[in-house]
């Protein structure tokens, strides 16, 4: 994927910051409704993205009301920002919203907000720094520069929310989860790795 496409993908991922924002401004109940509805809409629309004949039917119907050239442009843009494995399988947005719902529902407010914000912004910063400026790379393509950018971003997010020891542990957990891209998808595992680590550390430390 080109750097331009990567930036477009990360810009779209940054919309995930609406979840902690809604939580902060409107509370847990509204945040759960917001994420739950988003998840339901994404799941309902996902077959139209993955299954070719369903997508063709939709394009044909939309063509009656929307300019066909615009439809082709949108479809092309979606294809350029999708990972190769996502073109015929579940997309990152499904995993992200599912993990966000679990975290908002089960974890304390500060941990939920921090975990989702770090996983969203940290991942974007790691790619923006790591891809063009990463000079010290590992076998999986990740770089020291990208991982360090993730870690520092995580610290800047977590320190105002929780104390420094928890922030360091959470940032480290997120950095490792992002580096190893834990299954089933890093958009799912990254958030949960941070939330679970912070929650357990809090229980053990206090």
Automatic annotation (TrEMBL):
The chain crosses the membrane at residues 32-51, 90-107, 113-130, 150-176. InterPro entries: Dgk1-like. One of its GO terms (molecular function) is nucleotidyltransferase activity. It comes from the Archaea. Keywords: Membrane, Nucleotidyltransferase, Transferase, Transmembrane, Transmembrane helix. This is Phosphatidate cytidylyltransferase. It comes from Thermococcus paralvinellae.
